[in-house]
Design a protein that fits this description.
Elements (H helix, E strand, L loop, with lengths): L1 H27 L5 H27 L6 H6 L6 H6 L5 H22 L3 H26 L31 H11 L1 H13 L4 H32 L10 H23 L6 H24 L13 H23 L11 H34 L7 H21 L10 H5 L2 H16 L4 H27 L12 H28 L1 E7 L4 E4 L2 E12 L3 E10 L6 E3 L2 E5 L6 E3 L1 E3 L4 E10 L6 E9 L4 H17 L3 H10 L18
Antiparallel strand pairs: 1-10, 2-3, 3-4, 4-5, 4-6, 6-7, 8-9, 9-10
Helix pairs in contact: 1-2, 1-6, 2-5, 2-6, 5-6, 5-7, 6-8, 7-9, 8-9, 8-11, 9-10, 9-19, 10-11, 10-13, 11-12, 13-14, 14-17, 16-17, 17-18, 18-19
């Protein structure tokens, strides 16, 4: 019964999206009212939301007559991971994706209030509903999760063991999905602007506003993924330059570049063509990420299996790129801006070039194994050294620009602008000197100095913004220019702290492996480690083989329990490390092996400096974006939207004064 209802809801959602696309196109042509497309969007959202809820219900009640439930469900899987199984495999993730697309289309409708924004609504909805229809039709076609199977199995294998070993795996994928799907909105807004030949201040304002929200979710998703990798896999790291990690990073890079570049575009329409490229690239890279994870073309612990959906995603990606390039070629001659590039505009341009170089480097390293296998029939891999050696210097340049940016004037440099760099320069010299004394490599010294420079500059400018214009009693802090700038500066500070933590953990990490029998102690990395005993605990969906370990002596000793998890459906044990977070360093203990004959445990003991700073630093980046997002002055936004058609692009720049500066 659930399967039949779910399939019917999916068909209704796909049909509503197709009808809505047609209605929106007719509205763009001026033949129908946009309200028909709006009603179709509501129908698509209700139907696809119902389909997603029905699939969750089927997973919870273990309806193994449904193919997807039989594939990822299990009677032993805890409720949290049962619900998270909706996006744990291919067909369910596509259903979830379609529902999210309908949801963001509905959100766009609810947030579109001004007269001129409503004029853009029909074209934007046409693109969003077409994308919704594409994924919904996959759900009712080649990616149908509702197929009935017979005979009905008594139980299923459950989701991938790696996806049910930590609560972060119920959070990390949806955050990335919302970020990916959200980037479809600025893309749709841009396609509408290209079709109508209206690459004006209104387009840039809307595209930038609707990019900031997905950027926040992508930031949180990337940080949550790194945290999961650190807390679950037992290898002591948080970023392995895995292909699926890389493709999640790529749209974040181009979206970040656009958030900066749009600040130049607001001044006389400069770099409009480049801004279009960044918006299209951000969305296209989300499709590329979807293709990589759902086609099986690359090996990854995160990727799904090979499927027939891959060619369809290739077609969508190709249509997106060809169509966007064609529209841009037609409209670009009319999209040129006037005015010269001042000092800050040149800094932003250099910022964008560095982001583009990092994106190209990561993209090439990710797809090179595919190209090599296709051309030479030889399977190769690109390891972390390639990425670190090429991306590292480019990231240093971005950190320097993050520190310089707030002090750079839109016009020419002045003595006051140069004086504003003193706090950062002092911090950079102090940190560089300390790292020289510590005998680190030149690249590490440069990275540490650049991160310290960016952090000190951001902190100094935050203080200046807070004390420069005292807020009037009762005034709404969200409506002040300072609040928007402070949001961007907080994001810069978070990036700088994150860079310092990555550098410290990479250069100061120490690990030692020891083998101990029960009751034996060893002094390792300044800690007294005692292996007390081993224990085997049955779990709801696994067997846990744990080592009871104490760190320290006497009553103050810390008790730890690193473990190996053996899942019923997997022959390979998954390590769950025991982590003692610290302000200066984490103690990281992993159980590598347990000898059943002697009872001896092989443990890897590690100290990881400043890793615990990474998670709040990533949160600070997202918080800065949130402050900037909610700080847009609503009244001025509406007033500018109502008049921007009569004003040149530079006139309405205050309506979307930038994140970070």
């Amino acid at each position: 019964m659930i399967g039949a209802l779910g399939l019917a809801a999916s068909i209704a959602g796909a049909g509503s999206a197709v009808i809505g696309t047609f209605a929106a196109v007719r509205a763009v042509q001026g033949r129908w009212s946009p309200e028909a497309a709006v009603r179709a969007t509501w129908c698509a959202f209700i139907a696809l939301a119902a389909a997603n809820l029905l699939m969750v219900m089927a997973l919870v009640v273990r309806d193994f007559s449904i193919a997807y439930v039989a594939q990822v469900g299990s009677r032993e899987t805890p409720l949290l991971f049962t619900v998270a199984s909706l996006w744990a495999a291919l067909e369910g993730s596509i259903l979830f994706w379609a529902g999210l697309l309908a949801a963001v289309a509905l959100l766009l409708i609810s947030r579109t209030r001004s007269v001129h924004d409503r004029e853009r609504l029909a074209g934007t909805l046409a693109v969003l509903l077409a994308l919704t229809a594409f994924f919904a039709l996959i759900v009712v076609g080649p990616g149908n999760p509702w197929r009935r199977i017979s005979p009905v199995p008594l139980d299923g294998p459950g989701p991938n063991p790696l996806l049910q070993d930590h609560p972060l795996m119920a959070i990390h994928p949806p955050l990335l999905y919302v970020g990916f799907v959200g980037l479809a909105v600025p893309f749709a807004i841009t396609v509408d602007a290209l079709v109508r030949g209206r690459l004006d201040a209104g387009w840039l304002r809307l595209a930038r506003r609707w990019t900031l929200g997905p950027w926040i979710f992508l930031t949180l998703g990337l940080v949550a993924g790194a945290w999961w990798s650190y807390a679950v896999l037992g290898w002591g790291g948080y970023w392995a330059w895995d292909p699926v990690e890389n493709v999640a990073l790529l749209p974040w890079l181009t979206a970040t570049a656009f958030l900066h570049s749009a600040m130049v575009g607001r001044r006389g329409g400069l770099l409009l063509g480049w801004n279009v490229v960044l918006v299209v690239a951000s969305f296209a890279l989300t499709l590329f990420a979807t293709l990589v994870t759902r086609s099986g073309v690359l090996d990854s612990v995160h990727a799904f299996t090979r499927s027939a959906i891959g060619p369809l995603l290739v077609g969508l990606l190709g249509a997106t790129l060809v169509g966007s390039v064609g529209l841009l070629a037609l409209r670009l001659p009319d999209a040129g801006g006037s005015g010269r590039l001042g000092a800050r505009a040149r800094a932003f341009l250099l910022n964008n070039l560095l982001f583009a170089a990092i994106t190209a480097t990561v993209l090439f390293g990710t797809i090179f194994p595919i190209l090599a296998e296709a051309l030479t029939a030889t399977r190769v891999s690109v390891g972390a050294p390639y990425f670190e050696r090429l991306v590292g210097p480019l990231a240093v340049g971005l950190l320097v620009l993050a520190g310089i940016g707030p002090s750079v004037p839109w016009g020419d440099w002045s003595a006051r602008s140069r004086d504003a760099l003193v706090p950062g320069a002092i911090a950079a010299v102090v940190v560089a000197g300390s790292l020289v004394v510590a005998r680190l490599e030149p690249t590490s010294i440069a990275g540490g100095a650049a991160a310290a420079f960016a952090l000190a500059q951001s902190a100094a400018f935050i203080v200046q913004r807070l004390v420069r214009r005292p807020r009037r009693p009762g005034a709404d802090w969200r409506r002040t220019p300072n609040s928007r700038a402070i949001g961007g500066l907080l994001s810069h500070a978070g990036i700088a702290i994150l860079a310092l933590a990555v550098l410290a953990s990479a250069t100061g990490k120490r690990e030692v492996a020891v083998t101990l029998v029960p009751g034996q102690s060893a002094d390792v990395l300044g800690q007294t480690i005692t292996f007390v005993r081993s224990e085997e605990r049955p779990g709801p969906n696994r067997t846990v083989i744990a080592a009871a370990v104490t760190v320290g002596d006497g009553a103050s000793a810390t008790r730890l329990s690193p473990a190996l998890n053996v899942f019923r459906t997997s022959t390979q044990a998954i390590a769950t490390p025991a982590i003692v977070p610290g302000a200066l360093a984490d103690l990281y203990v992993t159980l590598l092996d347990l000898d059943p004959a002697t009872g001896a445990a092989t443990l890897r003991i590690g100290t990881h400096p400043f890793v615990s700073w990474m998670w709040p630093a990533g949160g600070l980046v997202a918080i800065g974006g949130m402050i900037a997002l909610v700080s847009v002055p609503l009244r001025r936004r509406r007033a500018v939207a109502d008049h921007e058609e009569q004003l040149p692009a530079a006139t309405s720049e205050a309506a979307f004064d930038g994140v970070g500066h």
